[in-house]
Design brief:
The model has no long low-confidence stretch (mean pLDDT 94). A 5-stranded mixed β-sheet has the order 2-8-7-6-5, sandwiched between helices. A 4-stranded antiparallel β-sheet has the order 9-10-13-12, covered by helices on one side. A two-stranded parallel sheet has the order 1-11. By secondary structure, it is of the alpha/beta class. The protein has helices at residues 7-11, 40-49, 63-73, 85-97, 119-125, 168-180, 233-243, 253-264, 266-290, 317-326, 350-369; strands spanning 27-28, 80-83, 109-112, 130-133, 153-156, 185-188, 209-214, 227-230, 293-294, 301-305, 329-330, 332-333, 342-346. It has 2 domains: 7-36 and 267-369, Aspartate Aminotransferase, domain 1; 40-265, Aspartate Aminotransferase, domain 2 (3-Layer(aba) Sandwich).
Length: 370
């Protein structure tokens, strides 16, 4: 703590991202990056953008990128907001649409007790009251639990870190309920492209629905930092008002060129993400045969728990996390209530996942021989 920090800074508990190692080479299955490179068209577009125009500010309207989103999903450019990754957009959305405690006694916003751990960080930063809704025993989201008095709802579909997705019908049912109560529904669709229903095409009928996307996962562009939101024109204007109170130039020229190119190459991304899905399903089956508990997944990651053998307790999450790390494999462990024995495992290449499976088999065998 510094004497120069204000009370807001002292009270913050920042989000902790997945480890990005620099000391040795690891198989990285901990940050949900796509194992395949971006489209060659992305590289070509960025290379073309490297010219003397870099001395000029980028387009604050992000026109080329927003038009590419609009063309891809059949919406108007005015219904698209572009940001520096979906995390920035979510931060703006919390500030734009959820009421802070200083404004009377606002109703708390709702999100699951097991979900993206940035949500409580945003809420505390903006001083927004919130209430977490427990997942079902099988780790699914129960839509009926969110049909109650609130200041709005936010969660991912598929949920993270579980990877479990809701049906389109459930999502729209909740959207309609919230609309009747003048509440917004922020749907974090970071992992669409791997099996979950897409909701963007329904925003025209649901003015309170904001769909937030990133190109970090299905777009293979985690290093480029580009995201977008699609919603009604009034929601997009709310995001713009918050953004322009911080920085109008959130995306640089190279990012705008690369992001637009990525959105236009549908065939390339459909193919690489089909490969991710095929790998995911194979790995899930192999782990289940070893006795692991593996939750259903509609994402580019899986959520797993080590097996119990002959009544012996399973290997705890921190133990198997450490054992994998010693073998040069990084996964994600959340030392939190209800999920401390689970690991989130991103999908790598088939070769990466074969090494991971061999390591899991070895760790489990060694543990139960003790």
């Amino acid at each position: 703590m510094s004497v120069y920090w204000n009370s807001r800074t002292k009270a913050l508990s920042p989000y902790v991202p997945g480890e990005q190692p620099k000391d040795r080479k690891f198989i990285k299955l901990n940050t949900n990056e796509n194992p395949y490179p971006p489209s060659p068209k992305v590289i070509e577009a960025i290379q073309k953008a490297v010219n003397d125009s870099l001395r000029l500010y980028p387009d604050p309207e992000c026109t080329v990128f927003r038009e590419a989103v609009a063309a891809r999903y059949g919406v108007w450019p005015e219904q698209v907001f572009a940001g520096n990754g979906s995390d920035e957009i979510l931060a703006f959305a919390f500030g734009a649409f959820f009421e802070s405690s200083g404004k009377g006694k606002p109703k708390p916003i709702l999100f699951p007790d097991i979900t993206y751990s940035f949500y409580p960080v945003y809420a505390r930063f903006w001083d927004i009251p919130y209430r977490t809704i427990p997942l079902n025993d099988d780790f699914s989201i129960k839509i009926a639990d969110y049909k109650t008095s609130s200041g709005g709802v936010v969660f991912p579909n598929p949920n993270a870190p579980t990877g479990m997705a809701l049906s389109l019908g459930d999502v729209l049912s909740l959207t309609e309920y919230l609309h009747k109560n003048n509440n917004i529904f922020i749907l974090d669709e970071a992992y669409t492209g791997f099996g979950a229903d897409l909701t963007i095409t329904h925003i025209k009928d649901h003015p309170n629905l904001l769909c937030v996307h990133t190109l970090s996962k299905s777009g293979s562009l985690a290093g480029l930092r580009a995201g977008f939101a699609v919603g009604s024109v009034e929601l997009i204007e709310g995001l713009r008002r918050v953004r322009d109170s911080f920085n109008s130039y959130t995306l640089d020229r190279l990012t705008l060129a690369g992001a637009a190119a990525a959105l236009s190459d549908v065939a390339y991304y459909n193919e690489i993400n089909r490969r991710v899905l095929k790998t995911r399903d194979r790995v899930m089956e192999a782990l289940r045969k070893m006795g692991f508990m593996v939750l259903p997944s509609s994402a580019n990651f899986i959520f797993i728990k080590a097996p119990e053998v002959q009544g012996m307790p399973c290997i705890n999450g921190s133990e198997i996390f450490s054992a994998l790390r010693e073998k040069g494999i990084l996964v994600r462990h959340f030392n939190k209530e209800r999920i401390s024995d689970f690991l989130r495992v991103s999908m790598g290449t088939d070769d990466d996942m074969d090494i991971f499976l061999d390591a899991c088999n070895s760790i489990v065998a060694d543990h139960y021989r003790k």
